[in-house]
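Technical annex B. To support the medicinal chemistry partners, we prepared a structural model of the target in complex with adenosine monophosphate, based solely on the information shown next.
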Amino acid sequence: METGLTVEEGRDRILALSEAKGTEYVETEFANGRILSEDIYAQENIPPFDRSPLDGYALRARDIKGASGETPVTLKVIEEVPAGSVPTKEVTEMAAVKILTGAPIPKGADLVVKYEETEFTETEVTFFKPGKSGGNIVPAGEDIRAGQLVLSKGERITPAVCGIIAGLGRPKVQVYQKPVVAFLSTGSELISVGEPLSPGKIRNSSVYTLKSYLEDVGAETILLGNVVDDPEEISEKIRSSVDGADMIVTTGGVSVGDYDFLIRVMEQIGAEILFWKEKLKPGGAFLASVYKGKPVISLSGNPSAAAVAMILNVVPAVRKMCGNREFLLKEATAKLAEDYTKSSPNMRIVPGKLEIREGQAVAVLSGHSGNGMLHPLHGCNILGRIEAGSKGMKKGNSISVYYI
Ligand code: AMP
Ligand code: MG
């Protein structure tokens, strides 16, 4: 069995098994967070016509060329155009049209002057300074031009993208189907969240963190529940759920103790073992296999260890299965906000926060780092990466961080 891979090697093996599913249409109203599976070209200009960005008067710039405080110029108001209406008259010499924000610019006008810079009555408007031709006119297509490629396949639909799709007149949009990830929690000590604690038992907490990370990147998740450390029960669950899932994630039982059955179970059901263990702390002790063509990732039961291994190895794969073309975690370098004294024979991941201190972006690593703890990831937006062989690092030293 292959073992001791680097995180990049392990991640790439899992990525190689992960493909986007088919496509489907969703209503634009419910498209936020989905991944586009079509290129979207603009069929029309946005805005569709030249329009006024403010309330004021549309006129010909040349008519007020000589306007000043001493020599104001008064024009005749020939019409009013509120938003949603269209002008019926052309602006001719010494005429102006009262125009409201969002209304189309009348023919003949090449300038809009805002109310506040004029004096006006129902029938006349006076200007006290000249204005440039084209001033305060938003040209058709300023935002998006007809024919332009606006959004492309593999792009995540964000709040901004939702509005663009709607602006292009698309009530529905084609997206990739969500991959379904099924979670199985193994461990005879586990009880469900709603059950009272009894001696020797703990609540199955880690699955809530793990599933939520994958939902955040676009997966649909199923909880298969808890099973005791029994090879028959574990294999039965995996066999019976594989057809309904695109990926299975298990927790617990992946080490070398007497009750760690995952490797044996996967071999018995005829899964292909991809590898066991990465050079990574925490979380390196996990198993990656393929069963009936589906990736099965068996993580440690320790909540932080499982989360770290999953973020580094499974999140990119799930993003890829979602059709997201930006599936790798974003990496950056950041300076340490404090000394980090632990030495790290293997690559070590420490959750933390990217914060601004004294005008500099710095990595504040979490002081809590127990593998079995739930809270080291609380409030974190990065995983700091301490390279193998480090004997400790000083405040101000640079480290790589994964943005999560
Ligand atoms: P294991 O990976 O089975 O060796 O478990 C490692 C540690 O994680 C043990 O202390 C378990 O009790 C604990 N653990 C296992 N599964 C979970 C879970 N779903 N939620 C929280 N802790 C767990
Ligand atoms: Mg166990």
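Notes passed to the chemistry partners:
Residues 187, 229, 252-253, 259, 301 surround magnesium ion (ligand 2) (CB under 6 Å).
The mean pLDDT is 96.
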